[in-house]
Design goal:
489 residues; alpha+beta; Nucleotidyltransferase, domain 5; 3 domains; 8-stranded mixed barrel; 10 helices; 20% helix; globular; disordered N terminus
């Protein structure tokens, strides 16, 4: 027995049959008995640790600050052999027990509180809507313990169907779940993992709504139906277990390192190179950790050398790209192309952009979007020009027109002159109002921007600024002109 919490669990729980249950059973045999045991253990632990400030007792868990460990009471679901395992650890109020490995008797928000009690702060969850494509947070090792066996890493419990390997043993990140409007009152913010399914505590794929997430790129669509329980560590249906959460780094120093890369124009060059590599050679790069300069020279080669030397065994590195407003768009395009090659777990994880800037991948858009006939939806198109330092534009409204018996819609196009940023905002609002009155589906909040590579970044952003609160997805084409608009017959 590892401590009082586990002891109580097994004292209060009778032994359960060691058999595999149905893969479509939401709660295992013995669930109510295990829940009652967890409630009894909670009351006993409140009394046991009431005068000890090193312990935090919450329903279903005990956190030990000295040992830097959280123990959560849980049970195995007994997934059938070869059944898909889509969730690692969920709360017992979840409706996804039929496809989960473990059901915990602690609320996700209480697990969050327990990890903070150990002195660890949450990072930030994966959230594509906020342009965060990497989960961020301190690493925790998660393991399972039964009454008479050594703890087993949670990663060993799962097998990838395609590779036949268990999950990478890299721990899980304390991201914390996002907050969301309550189902009872949307104006009241709640801890989303407490109220919204799957009520995840430890996720097997990147999720905005889990306490702990995998530390690598794992979109749900790629992970779904690709994991199953490792038969070597299969749990009996309803088997009482303890989920142990321990920080991988027992020191108080954070393993999350936030770096910035400021990109500026270099010395004045009369004839700007047209190729991307040539452009990189004319720019100034400042890689910083806070106020400390990390690269030996302000060139891109020195930045790459420094990134390559970072200690990824000890730390996780996140990079914020900051582009100076007086950069040419062609310069940013060149930097963006090369950054895609190092935006990875083995390279460096790129953060959402600073306020008032675009995500770097906006400058390397998919050229397939240029084919209006093949697009499923029709975004706005905006062609920008610059004359004597002033930017103006032509906004194109593309509308799908369906006719009887047509298998494909015709496209109606309306050109709208937008001489100023205010004109741009006015036209976007006017179309939204027309759509709402006609009770039609709103246009996607996406703008395809066509601009010359010599236009300054700050000039373009000033023009786009009024549109950004509602149209956050921007694709910037600098080597392609707006496709021609058919002349009206």
């Amino acid at each position: 027995m590892r401590n009082g919490l586990i002891t109580l669990l097994f004292m209060l729980s009778t032994s359960l049959p060691a058999q595999q249950g149905s893969s479509f059973k939401n709660t295992p045999e013995g669930h109510e008995k295990n829940r009652t045991a967890a409630a009894s253990a909670y009351e006993a632990n409140l009394k046991k640790f009431k005068d000890d400030g090193n312990f935090l007792v919450l329903p279903g868990l005990v956190a030990d600050k000295k040992k830097q460990r959280v123990e959560v009471m849980a049970e195995g679901t007994g997934l059938a052999k070869d059944a898909s395992c889509e969730f690692l650890v969920i709360a017992d109020t979840s409706s996804h027990g039929y496809e989960a490995l473990l059901i915990a008797f602690a609320k996700p928000s209480d697990v969050h509180k327990a990890l903070k009690f150990l002195g660890r702060e949450p990072g930030a969850p994966y959230d594509p809507s906020a342009l965060r494509f990497w989960a961020k947070g301190e690493t925790f090792n998660c393991s399972l313990a039964t009454s008479n066996e050594e703890p087993v890493l949670l990663e060993k419990m799962i097998v990838n169907r395609q590779s036949a390997k268990t999950l990478p043993e890299k721990g899980f990140l304390f991201t914390g779940s996002q907050m969301a409007g309550s189902m009872k009152d949307p104006n009241v913010k709640v801890y989303a993992a407490d109220e919204y399914d799957p009520k995840s505590i430890v996720s097997i794929f990147n999720s905005p709504f889990s306490v702990l997430d995998v530390p690598y790129w794992a979109p749900q669509g790629e992970v779904y139906e690709n994991s199953t329980v490792n038969p070597k560590y299969a749990l009996a249906e309803g088997a009482p277990v303890t989920l142990i959460l321990e920080p991988a780094n027992k020191e108080s120093i954070s393993s999350v390192k936030n770096l910035t890369l400021l990109v500026q124009p270099g010395n004045s060059v009369t004839n700007r190179p047209a190729d991307d590599i040539g452009r990189l050679g004319t720019l100034k790069f400042l890689l910083k950790d806070g106020e400390t300069m990390l690269n030996a020279k302000p060139d891109f080669k020195s930045v790459i050398e420094k990134i390559d030397s970072l200690d990824r065994q000890k730390n996780q590195y996140f990079l914020t790209l900051n582009f100076a407003g007086n950069l040419d768009l062609g310069d940013i395009h060149a930097v963006a192309k090369i950054m895609t090659a190092i935006d990875s777990e083995k390279g460096i994880r790129i953060e959402p952009p600073p306020a008032g800037q675009l995500y770097y991948k906006a400058f390397i858009p998919d050229r397939n979007f240029l084919d209006r006939q093949e697009r499923i939806v029709q975004p706005w198109e905006l062609s920008l020009t610059e004359k004597n330092g002033a930017v103006s534009g032509m906004l194109l409204l593309v509308t799908q027109v369906w006719k009887d018996d047509d298998w494909k819609p015709a496209l109606a196009m309306t050109e709208l002159s937008v001489a100023t940023p205010k004109d741009l905002r006015r036209e976007l609002d006017a179309e939204a109002e027309r759509t709402a009155k006609a009770e039609k589906m709103a246009k996607p909040p996406v703008i395809l921007v066509f601009a010359p590579p010599t236009m300054k970044y700050g000039q373009m952003m000033k023009f786009l600024e009024p549109a950004l609160p509602t149209h956050k997805t921007i694709h910037v084409y600098i080597n392609d002109q707006m496709p021609p608009v058919p002349t009206k017959k």
